[in-house]
Every structure is written in structure tokens, then in C-alpha cells.
Amino acid sequence: MTAATWGAVLGGTSALGLLLVARRVLVIRRPQLAVRVLPYVRDLPQTGGLARAVRPPTSAAVGVFGPPLRAAADGVERVLGGAASVERRLRRAGIDKTVHELRVEQVLWGLVGFAVVAAYSVLRALAGPTPSLGPLVLCAVAFAAGVLARDSWLTSQVKARERRILAEFPTLAELLALAVAAGEGPVAALDRVVRRSGGELSHDLGRVLAAVRTGEPVGTAFDAMAAATGLPLVSRFAQGIAIAIERGTPLADVLHAQAGDVREAGRRELIEVAARREVLMMVPVVFLVLPVTVVFAFWPGLIGLSLTIS
What we know:
Helix 4 crosses helix 6. This protein has helices at about 5-30, 35, 45-55, 60-80, 85-95, 100-125, 135-180, 185-195, 200-215, 220-230, 230-245, 250-275, 280-310. The protein is built from 13 helices and no strands.
């Protein structure tokens, strides 16, 4: 192809891109029907949330690249599936996102991996001839690795949050037990603990308190917390409180017993981790300390033998 042909192709591509951007900007700037109607329904309680929900995107990049990313996220969802599992892990990780938003992040991570491998392949091609099929396979593998890496990181976030919850649980249970033993009711004790603490479990208890204040029974709110959490100890804690409130069991005794169970479970887990790490602890002894000891023991004898022979 001649230089004029290349110039025509590049000019046409640039003009088409600018036309698409201008068209999308005009669509973004056009007020939607819901936005025009909102000033006349200000007395409705959901007006503020509706205004935030229907507000059009203010970035041209979101308008241009948003639809392709959402389509790619739908494709990832069709290939991977498991929307229920992802939604459950999002709740357990305390992440306020939908499954579709997570799929979009997975696509972005995949595109980052694709771009890195593609840039490396281009630099390598400029240095010398390379097979054409290999870089394409590597780019596809990098995209898939980025998508799976975001899913793996979500699992890591879930585990990290659950470790923090287990670390906070005995203290919060004891605080609840002390407040109940001092004469406060379950809701008042829960409010006192939530206001004076911070952490992942405190946030979960804050959601339970918010549900109770909106009219939901205390036992039902704790049952919902037990169903949402992925930790058996926290689930038993919530179910124990719900049963104690329904049947009139002394709540302070239940909370003290729950805190003791968590501490005992933590000690057992520590012993199990130490038992699993025992083999790893032997690696420096076998491969570092023992060879040095052998060398120090036999080296003088070897030097003496060499002097005697000489």
C-alpha cells in the first residue's frame, strides 16, 4: 500500500472515532425523561436515590467504552457462571458491588494482562522475527489469567475479612454480655457495642441493628445474619442470640459461652497451624544448621590428614 492509501485509512479511522465520540457526548448531554419528570415528584421518598440512579454518565470514556465492557462482562458470566457463589462471596467480603460490576472488573484485569503481554510481544517482534501464533496464544492466556486472578483475589478478600471477624468476635461478645448483664436490653446493648467499636463484625452488627430499628424482629435479624455469614462460629453466635431471645434464655450466659468457644477454637487452630508448619521448621535445620555442623566437625580432621600425608 502506498503512503496516500495509508493516510486515507488512518484519516477515515480517526474521523469515524471522533464521530462516535461526538455522537455519544450528544446522547450523554441530552436529559433523560426521568430527569425531566423528577422536579414534579419531589415529595416521593425515593426521589434522591432515583435521581442518583438515573443520572447519566458524565464521562465520555464511560459512555464510549461502557457498553463493550458490559457486553464482555456478560460473556465472562456466560463462560464462568456461578453468579450465586460470587454474590455470596461478595456479601461475605463486605463489598458493596453487584455480580455484574465484579465481572466488569474481571474484564479490566484481563485487558491489563492482555496489554502487558501484547506490548512484550510487539517489542520482541521488533527485535527479531517471531512466530505469529505464539503471541496470540500468550495474549489469550494472559487475558484468562487476569480474569481468574480477580476471582482469586475476591476469595482472598473473603478469607482476610473472616480472619478479622474471628479476631474481633470474642471482644464484642464479651462487651455484649457485660451490657446485657448490666441490665440493658438486647437492642440497647447492641447499640452500645456498635457505637463504641469498629471493625468488620461491628459493621455486620450495625446492619442487624438497622434492620431491628426498621421493624424487623431481633431474632429474625440475627437469623438473617447467620444465613449470610460464612463462618460457623459467627453463625452459631447469631442463632444462639436469636434462640435466647425467643425462648427467654439468659442472654449473658449465652454470650459468655460463645466467646469462650471462639477463644478455644482459636487455640485449636493455632495448634493445628503449628503442627502443619513443623515440617517447614525443619528445613533450615536440615539444610543449613546440620551441614555447617558437619563441616565444623570434620574440617579439622581433613586438614590434619592432608598435613600428615604431605
